[in-house]
Amino acid sequence: MSHNILVKRQFGHRARLALSPAGIRAADDQAHAARAMWNLLHAWWQMMPKEKRTLANADAAIRQARKDIDFLAVLPAQAAQAVLKTYFQAWKNCWDGRADAPNFKGRFRTVMSVDIPQGRDLNITRVHRRWGMVNLPKVGRVRFRWTKDLPVGKRADAGNRITGARLIKDALGWHIAFRVQTLQGNPEPHEGPDIGIDVGVTVPLALSDGETYEHGEWLTEKEKDRLLHLERRAAQRKQHRKHGERTSRRLQRTYDQIAELRAKAKRRALDWQHRTTTAIARTYGTVVVEALTITNMVKSARGTVEEPGKNVAQKSGLNRSISGEAWGRTVTMLAYKTAQLGGTLVKVPAPGTSRRCSACGFTTPGSRESQAVFVCKNPDCGWSGNADHNAARNVLHLYRMGLALVPAAGRAVVRRAKRVKPAAAR
Question: What distance lies between CA 116 and its chain's CA centroid?
């Protein structure tokens, strides 16, 4: 590791909070106030002329709103300033072409969150091996699960410290995500071998060297039975609700229980993805993946009334399986983890990788006899093997032939200007 050049990095560490019922109500009130502050800012932005849409004018507007509207006062002043900065950053991202324009935040479609921008306000201490304590503005001292060492006390210095946090509520309750800033030296180039990766549904990750990374079901049989029971109960209770009628407490409770099980499955999937991508980034120097357009792959086959689609139910099930594997999230993790370890992630064109024979290089019809078996129909070849590993070797072959599309050496890839050729693969 080279230490002559230091770069500043931000990492997030998420931990579960043990809030009391009063603390939960206080955090909920702050999150609702933050959402209302965003909506008021958006309304103010739409009413103001362009020349008056400045940060100073917006700051004066939210200060006056906190005085005039009582429930906005539950939101700490620094959290209100964070909402303001986030809103202006959203417009900047829109103008730069990185995101859509900001809009109103709905009550049931928005993740409840509250920002704590100052790390010194947290006053983090470790109670014992499993729990720590943190100070939350206008909530008090709260315990949280200590699952990872944090730079607090003697461990904190100018190059490794907590700069802030964010409270986030999901189906499993309130959590705190710490922002940890650390100075790291630029890594030396990774000397590991090149590897091609083919993603799939039956075999999530197949590598060109014959290695596979698989996982089981994210929910146990008992949990899947309970999820099916809750979904049937929700459908039954929904039948008795009139159109436009407010959701009953019983139905809302059923929805919450369904969300808890789905959040548990997602957390297990994230854990598997993190462990798998870390192992790949540590082992290989150059990771080559297909440039898949996943949004097009999961489009519905329903069609129209005039031209109805075919095999709609089968395509719907395939779409759910593809979305459940979260291939895009896996590639994103591989991109920033390989960059941190001195490696490179490269994307190559996807068409034809599953139909081409990696031994002779020919594409003959019917070579892929099943999901797992590939038998080359070329009379001069006749090679047979695992179809997923064959596709992974073809992915690596495209990279070695210089057909790389997008070198993705970090979390964010800068968009190329028009009429500029892509960077050549190394």
Answer: 21
Instruction: Return the sign of the alpha-carbon dihedral for residues 11, 109, 138, 63.
Output: positive
Q: What does the alpha-carbon distance between residue 88 and residue 81 come to, in Å, rounded to a whole number? A: 11
d(CA 301, CA 320) in angstroms, rounded, equals 13
Q: How many residues does this entry show for the chain?
A: 426
Does pLDDT of 217 surpass 50?
yes
Pairwise CA distance, residues 101 & 36, whole Å? 18
Q: What is the pTM of this model?
A: 0.78
CA-to-CA dists, residue 424 to 177, 368, 382, angstroms: 38, 32, 35
Backbone angles phi, psi at 8, to 5 degrees: -95, 130
DSSP state of 70: G
**What are 325-338's pLDDT values in tens digits?**
888 889 999 998 99
Task: Give the chain's mean pLDDT.
Answer: 84
For the stretch 32-61, pLDDT in tens is 999 999 999 999 999 999 889 899 999 999
3-state SS, residue 89: helix
Specify the DSSP class assigned to residue 135.
Answer: E
More confident residue, 397 or 6: 397
User: Which contacts qualify for 180-184: CB closer than 8 Å, 24 or more apart?
Assistant: 180/10, 180/11, 180/12, 180/13, 180/150, 180/151, 181/8, 181/9, 181/10, 181/11, 182/8, 182/9, 182/11, 182/151, 183/6, 183/7, 183/8, 183/9, 183/158, 183/159, 184/6, 184/7, 184/9, 184/340
Segment 204-232 shows an average pLDDT of: 91
Return the sign of the alpha-carbon dihedral for residues 138, 139, 143, 144.
Answer: negative
Comparing CA positions, the residue from 420, 242, 204 lying closest to residue 330 is 204
> How far is Cα 369 from Cα 372, in angstroms, rounded to an integer?
8
